[in-house]
Amino acid sequence: xxxxxxxxxxxxxxxxxxxxxxxxxxxxxxxxxxxxxxxxxxxxxxxxxxxxxxxxxxxxxxxxxxxxxxxxxxxxxxxxxxxxxxxxxxxxxxxxxxxxxxxxxxxxxxxxxxxxxxxxxxxxxxxxxxxxxxxxxxxxxxxxxxxxxxxxxxxxxxxxxxxxxxxxxxxxxxxxxxxxxxxxxxxxxxxxxxxxxxxxxxxxxxxxxxxxxxxxxxxxxxxxxxxxxxxxxxxxxxxxxxxxxxxxxxxxxxxxxxxxxxxxxxxxxxxxxxxxxxxxxxxxxxxxxxxxxxxxxxxxxxxxxxx
Length: 307
Hints:
The chain is 73% helix and 0% strand. It is built from eleven helices and no strands. Helix 1 (3-49) packs across helix 11 (270-304) and helix 4 packs across helix 6 (146-170). The model has no long low-confidence stretch (mean pLDDT 85).
């Protein structure tokens, strides 16, 4: 290779490195804009609301007087709705993802299902609210209850869980399946003992994303009739008498943190704006706690995986 060719190659490499550096800088700037915007908004909310958060605020019901208002019914309702959402969406989404990836035949019917699942992940949340209003509230007769809200948000995050499950399963090397089949394992044994355990970390990532979206949704919850003012709690899911489990709370009226914040921000008094900031700060902490638990579980699962 003559010196001119060497210089030409070096010039091409240098030019490409310049473009790589420029792209890296632009990506870093875009990331910092998003992060700094979130930090600024979160800091402003924390500064406004931190002084309002105390034991009375967390254990009091909403009130027409801002200084006496609390978020007890809102955060309890949020936890109950998220419980129903997780119990309805996660098992069904994981099972659907496993079926589509490991069991479903590769034909045009499966292709249509896959396309529709992917498209449903981008449908506006208000559409799910209208669907739930006609299906759960009126058709099935669940009414404006915790069960209706949880199933609505479960439908909302179901496509996300399915897509995340399928992508996690696809990331598993084919040799894992071949090795399992080679020693005589059935498809179910392979899925149970290898596929699901090895993909559980990625599945949890999809669950984290879906639950983080669901906990802050307002439009579908308003559509199915969440209350903006509620001064009582649903019955406890656990009782002291046999059978120690109570399901009446599923049919109880409810409110959630985003609805409570919406109610307070719609009022002109500045003190209610402070209450909304405090409630928003608590909601962010609840989301971080939920995501932190899932991330910890994902880390433990990854550490215990043995190929």
